[in-house]
Structures are given as structure tokens and as C-alpha cells.
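request received
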Amino acid sequence: MVISGAREVAETVTDPELPMLTLAELGVLREVEVGQGGRVVVSITPTYTGCPAMDTMRDDLDARLREAGYSEVEIRVVLTPAWSTDWITPSGRRKLAEAGIAPPGPAPRRASGPVPLTLVPPAQLVRCPLCGSPDTVLQSEFSATACKALRRCRSCAEPFEHVKEI
Amino acid sequence: MFDNAYEALTEEGDARWAFGTGFADPLSGVDTTVPSGVDGAELAAYCLMLGDDALIMSHRLQEWCTRAPELEDEVAIANIGLDLLGQARLLLARAGKADGTDRGEDEFAFLRTEQAFRNVRLVEVGNADFAFSMARLLVFATWRLALLQRLVDSVDPVLAAIAAKGVKEVAYHRDYAARWVVRLGDGTELSHQRMQNGLTAVWPYVGELFTGHPVESRIGVDPAELRAEFDAVLAQVLTAATLQLPETPALATVLGRSGRDGVHTEEMGYLLAELQSVARAHPDATW
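response:
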């Protein structure tokens, strides 16, 4: 029994490491196709190549769709185009901020030619998601997951994570 | 879904665990047809070279876990190692599809002997100290970033896609290493000296990065093409770090053969003994 559209069902599945966000809001869910006989093909793309949550995402999507009555489900990984933080939806950005994680700014637009070296991290206006202050500093470009940087607020002194732009 | 955690753990055939073996094929659902006009065996050999570079470099970076100077660096180095492990998984899986054997990533990583590994010797050498590791990461990431940028236009769309993702990741790795090299080089007298020593100790492994193997120029990028960009980036970092470009001679080859031919340094055997110990003790086990 199919109780609701496959896309709607897939869009309810959340990210295992950012459970406040759905995979759709994160931009990881790329496509949901329903073929002949109700066969569902879902395409997902990894945020970072080494993202260890891909298997969990795949299994969660599969399980949710089967619970919803789809008996034939295939989850495909698509590698191109590479994931960008620009794909995080406005509601995803709002939920990140509500969870204390600063959402990303616009992803860098790289010109062709060699990637320039940045010896000094470029100054970036990132507001503290806890107190709203713009006075925050970068602690490390790597945090609890590959997709986040670690910052500290100089107003409320709290550390917080920031989804880094890629 | 379960009444208690124990029930969840003991459920048979459960593939929902994110951290463990028994991972699904990382190329699941990706079209891995070898493009026409491309020799599958050569493409596989090339993917093994780039995959082994990432795998072994990742292993050396993981050795810093619990030993890095600060918690932030512990996390940073682990993340860089994880990115490279992800690249290795895709590249090894690509090799198994390209050569028609359908061997999986685990078989390549855990069941090959030392002579079958095709990584450059730069990545296998032991960590010495933090300065050495940062000098190596700078050299490795600078070289690999230049390479991946060119592979974005590879004849193989799978390799091109892996490279396009890798460029974004390795750019962060290079910045991280470069900033440490500058911080230590342009730091105290002691940190300057140790950074210079680290760079000097890494230098014998640099030449091999640009001599390459005939397979590389046939199917991918001729590494000799990367030298100018590599030199320019290194010069920029070393100037800011007040360090001297080392003049240490290149490590000797064995009758012209080196890492790309399966000829490794003594430390490679010890590294693999550790990397492969669990898989060899429990063949075909998943948990």
C-alpha cells in the first residue's frame, strides 16, 4: 500500500549527524524517481568523500520508503556535480542556526587555474548562533565533522560550529 | 525501533552501522563502464596508484590521533585522514570495476602484499616529529591538489568526479599544513630549526613525485607537468616561513624502480603489518 508520494517520504529522512535537518534540506538528496511498477530510485550525493554517514543515510531512506509501502527501492550514489553548501535550503540554514550551528555563507567561486594558497584565513563575518554577536574568531577549519569549522564568540565566550563553505 | 540498545546490536544482518566494516560499495549506483578507447587494466593500475597514496597517507595521519599537540589539531588531522580515506575507498573501488575483477576496496587494502602497493614512498615513511609530518603534508597536498585539478578533465568520468570532490578537500589540507609550516618556521629559534629539519628530512622523497610511471602519463596526468606549480607554492610558503629550500639529494631508486613499481622502504612492511592485521587474522569477517 502506497500511502504517500515517494518524494515526500524520502524528504522526511533526516541526516544522521545533523538530525535537525532532512537530507533534502542538506542538499544530499538529489533525485527521487518512481518508475514502472512503483520502483523507486533515490539518488544521494556525499557531502565529503570520506563521509562515514553515507551507509546510514542509504539504509534510513530504504527503510522509510519500504515502511511507506514501496517494495522495490534502489539508492544510488551520484558523485557529480560535487556537493556544495549552496545546496543547503533556507529552512535548513534556519534549523542549523536554531541548533547552535552557524550556517555557511556563499560557497567560493573559484576561477580556473591553480587554487590559490591562503596562508591567513580570510576574515569572515560569522555571527554567533548563540548570542548573535558578529565578534567571532576561527579556532580551526576542522571540527567534529569534516563539513564544519570551529569558531569562538568573543562576546559570550562560547565555542560554536560553522558549516564551512565548499 | 528497538526496546534497548543490546537488541539493536545483536540484530543479525544489520547494515545500519555507520562505523565498522561491511560498508556498502562506495560506487554503488555509479556508472562504472570503462569509456571506449580506455584500457581498463591501465585505468585500474592508475587508480591504485592514486588510491594507495591516499590510503597510506591517511594511515600515517591517523597515527597522530591521541598524540597531536592540541585538541584542535587532533581533530583537524583526523579529518584530513578521513577525507583521504574516502578518496582511497572510491579509487580502490574504481580499480576493481575498471580491471573487470570486481574486487572490492577491502581486498585491495587488506589482502595485497607490499610489492603490490603502488604508493609513492613519501607517504609510507614514519612520522618522526610534528614538523616532519607537517612538511610531508604540505608536500603531499600541494602535489595532489595540482594533480587532482588536472584530473577533473579525465577521460574517465568516475575519476573526474572523484577528483572534483577531492580538489575542494585537499585545498583545505594544503592550507592547514602551510599555516603550521609558517607558524613553526617563523616562530622561535627552536621551532624554526625543527621545522627546517623536518623539511630537509622530507625532501629526499620529493623527486619521485615528479618522475612517475609510464601509466600515469598515458592514462592520467604526467606528474612532470606538476613541478612548476608545486615549486611556486612551496616557494610562497617557505618565504613566509623564513625556511630554506633543502638541497638533500633524492632517495635512490632500485635499478630505476620505486614506489610506483612496488619497491618500498623498510617502514612500509611494518605499516602494512599493522594496517592489515585484523583483516588477516579474521579473513572475510564483517562486524
